[in-house]
Sequence to fold (279 residues):
Amino acid sequence: MAVGRPRRYPSDLCDSEWVLIAALLPTPAADTLGGGRPEVHCRRTIIDAIFYVADNGCKWRALPIDFPPRSTVHGVFTKWRKQGVWDAMNDALRDRERVRAGRKAEPTAAVIDSQSVRAAETVGKDSRGWDNAKKVGGRKRHIAVDVLGLLLVVHVTAANVQDRDAAFFLLQRMRMLYGKISLVWADSGYDYGKLIDGARRILRLTVQIVRRTDDMTGFVVLPRRWIVERTLSWICQRRRCVRDYERLPENHEAMVTISMIMLMARRLARPRTVLSRAA
Fold:
C-alpha cells in the first residue's frame, strides 16, 4: 500500500518527496522480529493527513473523509513524536540540504531566538502565560537554527518565561545533539552575564550578542539575526503554527519540526545545482 490516494491538496506529498520521507520512517512492527499487526492504512496517506493538519491548521476531527480516521492519524503523530521520528527526520533532511548547499552535514555555529504565539482555549493554564513585552498570552517557542536557517532544536515554554531563562536549556540540548557547534549568535535579550558565562564554562559555547547601535532607526537587517527571524516566518507559513492549539508543549514542538520537514522535503525534491562553497 505504498501508492496512497490521489494527490488532492497542496500539502500532499509528491512522489519525489515521498521517496525521501519513506526511507526515514521506522520499520513497521509486522516486519520486525518481535512481530505485530500489519498496518491497515497506507503510511503515505497518514503523512499526507498530518501535513494537511499542519498546513491548514484544522482540527483533527475536521480531517477530510479521504484520509484515515483522525484517531489513527493523531495516534501515529503522537507515537512518532514519542519515538523521536520527527526529530530524526528533520536531522536527516537538514543534513542533506546542508550538503546540497555545499556545506558539511554537521553544523559548527547556530543562531537562537524566540517567538511568542497566542494560545487557543485548548492550551491549559499550567503551560501558558503572558508576554508583557509583546502583549501576547500563550506560549513561547525558543529555537536554534544553523546558518542556513534550518531547525536544530525547538523548546516550547509559557510566554512569560524570559528568553535568557529558557536559553540555557535550549543550548544544553543543542550541545548534547550537535557536539561540533562552538559559536552561537543571539540578540540583546540574551545579554545576561550568568547565561554567557555558564555557556562558556559548562557547555563550551561562545554566545555572541548582535546588538543594534544607537544610530540605527527603523527596520535594519542585523548580521546573523535575520537568519533565525526568517526561520520563524517560515514556521508561520503553516497555519497550525500561527497559534498554539496543542494541549501538550511537546506536540507544538513536533508541529514546528514538521513545518520544517515539509519545507526541506519540498526543497530537496526540486532539481537544483549544487553550489561550490566552503563548509
Remarks:
- Residues 118 and 138 are 5 Å apart (CA to CA).
- The mean pLDDT is 91.
- The longest helix spans residues 249-269.
- The two ends are 40 Å apart (CA to CA).
